[in-house]
């Protein structure tokens, strides 16, 4: 499924793509940027493909795809994610329908002249499009959503799980194995697209995309159990967001502010672990600008898509 042969990648070149979206971003210690997104045919449907590109000049120019997750016209590869783990390895994740599986392939040396990816494997079900969180004790928490009947995408079969929601999967052995933990109940379940951060008091806070906008929940036991999700501190649309703890200790959130649809993409800063968001900066006021992702590099610069 993971294609790295240059000849096979020809069919996914820029001039052959009709659209693309749902990006992810990472940056290595040596400064190489990687971006992922998905494309294929005319829209989000069967025959989608997840693509990976790189930049060695801080994003001024980008390569053609160096890897592609693609099965066939009967399948859909979608909602990719990039993450550099504490060992410096680059993880490339994507979802596959109708199998309802999250696949991951790891590149152990992402700064190599020709990055080499290990064979892909299933790490969970159904969708993981946002970066994991490393807890202070070393546990990795992956935000993997189990969807219910999403009639807007009829080619995705119903989940075999009786429970659906914004689950977390934990790995205590650097990604060798994964265990599904708990999820919070929400009165406005949507596509989830959740992210987590560990708070300074040891709790884990989860933000979740819902029909009401962002909701938040808390876990005091590392993700096993969660409080019922409640509405976030200010209005947001039913759309993906991004949250991360910065090297400064502050929390960075990117979402929409005083929005109409999906405009006014804005960065928010919290100095008190999410109790308040007193600082904000407009990033892009245009309509239909959404699905942010980002990374803080070794020098403290924040790169975003």
Plain-language structure description:
The protein is 1% helix and 41% strand. The chain is built from 1 helix and 23 strands. The protein has a 5-stranded antiparallel β-sheet, with no helix packed on it. A 4-stranded antiparallel β-sheet has the order 6-7-8-9, with no helix packed on it. The protein has a 4-stranded antiparallel β-sheet with strand order 10-11-12-13, with no helix packed on it. A hairpin with an 8-residue loop joins strand 19 (251-256) and strand 20. The protein is globular. The model has no long low-confidence stretch (mean pLDDT 94).
Beta-strand residue fraction: 35-45%
Radius of gyration: 18 Å
Classification by helices and strands:
mainly beta
Low-confidence stretches: none
Q: Numbering strands along the chain, what is their spatial order in the largest sheet?
A: 1-5-4-3-2
Query: Average pLDDT, to the nearest integer?
Result: 94
Share of residues in helices: under 10%
Total E-strand runs: 23
Number of helices: 1
Largest β-sheet summary? 5 strands, antiparallel
Shape: globular
What is the first-to-last residue Cα distance? Answer: 26 Å
- Can you write the helix and strand succession as a string? EHEEEEEEEEEEEEEEEEEEEEEE
């Amino acid at each position: 499924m993971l294609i790295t042969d240059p000849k096979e990648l020809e069919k996914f070149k820029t001039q052959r793509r009709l659209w693309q979206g749902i990006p992810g971003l990472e940056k290595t210690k040596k400064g190489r940027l990687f971006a992922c997104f998905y494309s294929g045919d005319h829209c989000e449907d069967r025959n989608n493909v997840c693509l990976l590109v790189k930049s060695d000049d801080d994003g001024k120019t980008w390569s053609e795809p160096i890897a592609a997750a693609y099965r066939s016209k009967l399948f859909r590869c979608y909602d990719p994610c990039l993450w550099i783990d504490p060992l410096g390895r680059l993880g490339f994740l994507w979802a596959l329908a109708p199998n309802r599986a999250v696949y991951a392939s790891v590149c152990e040396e992402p700064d190599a002249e020709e990055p080499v990816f290990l064979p892909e494997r299933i790490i969970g079900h159904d969708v993981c499009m946002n970066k994991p969180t490393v807890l202070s004790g070393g546990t990795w928490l992956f935000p993997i959503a189990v969807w219910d009947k999403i009639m807007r995408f009829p080619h995705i079969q119903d989940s075999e799980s009786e429970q659906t929601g914004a689950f977390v999967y934990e790995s205590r052995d650097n990604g060798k194995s994964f265990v599904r933990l708990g999820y919070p109940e929400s009165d406005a379940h949507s596509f989830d697209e959740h992210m987590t951060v560990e708070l300074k008091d040891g709790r884990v806070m989860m933000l979740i995309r819902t029909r009401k906008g962002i909701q938040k929940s808390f876990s005091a036991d590392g993700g096993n159990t969660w409080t019922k999700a409640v509405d976030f501190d200010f209005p947001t649309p039913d759309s993906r967001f991004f949250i991360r703890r910065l090297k400064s200790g502050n929390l960075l959130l990117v979402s929409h502010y005083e929005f109409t649809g999906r405009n006014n993409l804005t960065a928010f800063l919290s100095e008190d672990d999410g109790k308040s968001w007193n600082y904000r900066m407009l990033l892009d006021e245009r309509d239909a600008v959404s699905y942010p992702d980002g990374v803080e590099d070794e020098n403290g610069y924040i790169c975003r898509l």
